């Protein structure tokens, strides 16, 4: 049976970005990227999680970091032109992005928010990111992905 494409996958199709979709079984108790990495057979540092962040200058943006990493809010503030940043409250995630926890993708959100990806993505020929719904990952070349989508890269981990 064919995998139903998400908005994020359709956007990559439109941009002619090569990728593959990988399905996995969803466990409501373990939605974290480390658990997802185990299910898709990749190391946690190759499966990137998308965090929704609010800054004082940029109201909403995404930070994309390795699944086992911790976001350095000060580093993100500095590279994004904010004085300070904070994670968006979980209850605000769906109204702001159209995504739920465990299925938040840096592409295809309700609005075209700025995306900042951790530079360790370049250590891999391909990385996995959420396809925009629980149980589905997009595996893609980080170089092509970042270039086509105009993302910025920086050191974003603690």
Q: What would your notes on this structure say?
A:
With 158 residues, the protein is an alpha/beta fold. It has one domain (7-154): YbaK/aminoacyl-tRNA synthetase-associated domain (YbaK protein). Helix content is 25%, strand content 24%. The chain has helices at 7-14, 33-40, 73-80, 90-97, 142-149, and strands at residues 19-23, 48-55, 61-66, 85-87, 115-118, 127-130, 136-140, 152-154. Strands 4-2-3-5-8 form a five-stranded mixed β-sheet. Strand 2 and strand 3 (61-66) form a beta hairpin. The model has no long low-confidence stretch (mean pLDDT 93).
Taken together, the total number of domains comes to: 1
Adjacency order of strands in the biggest sheet:
4-2-3-5-8
Count, helices: 5
User: What percentage of amino acids are in beta strands?
Assistant: 15-25%
- The helix/strand order is HEHEEHEHEEEHE
CATH homologous superfamily grouping: YbaK/aminoacyl-tRNA synthetase-associated domain
Number of strands: 8
What do we call the CATH topology?
YbaK protein
Quote the average pLDDT. Answer: 93
**Straight-line distance between termini:** 41 Å
* Structural class estimated from helices and strands: alpha/beta
Write a brief structural summary.
By secondary structure, the chain is of the alpha/beta class. It contains 5 helices and 8 strands; from the N terminus they run αβαββαβαβββαβ. Helix content is 25%, strand content 24%.
């Amino acid at each position: 049976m064919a995998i139903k494409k998400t908005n994020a996958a359709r956007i990559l199709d439109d941009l002619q970005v090569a990728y593959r979709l990988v399905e996995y079984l969803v466990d409501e108790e373990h939605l974290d990227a480390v658990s997802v990495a185990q299910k898709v057979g990749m190391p946690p540092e190759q499966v990137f999680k998308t965090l929704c962040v609010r800054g004082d200058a940029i109201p909403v943006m995404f930070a994309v970091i390795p699944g086992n990493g911790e976001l350095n809010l000060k580093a993100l503030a500095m590279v994004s032109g904010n004085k300070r940043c904070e994670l968006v409250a979980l209850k605000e995630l769906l109204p702001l992005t159209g995504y739920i926890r465990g299925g938040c993708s840096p592409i295809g959100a309700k609005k075209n928010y700025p995306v900042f990806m951790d530079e360790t993505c370049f250590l891999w020929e391909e990385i996995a990111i959420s396809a925009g719904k629980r149980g589905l990952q997009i595996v893609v070349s980080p170089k092509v992905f970042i270039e086509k989508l105009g993302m910025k890269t920086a050191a974003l981990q603690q």
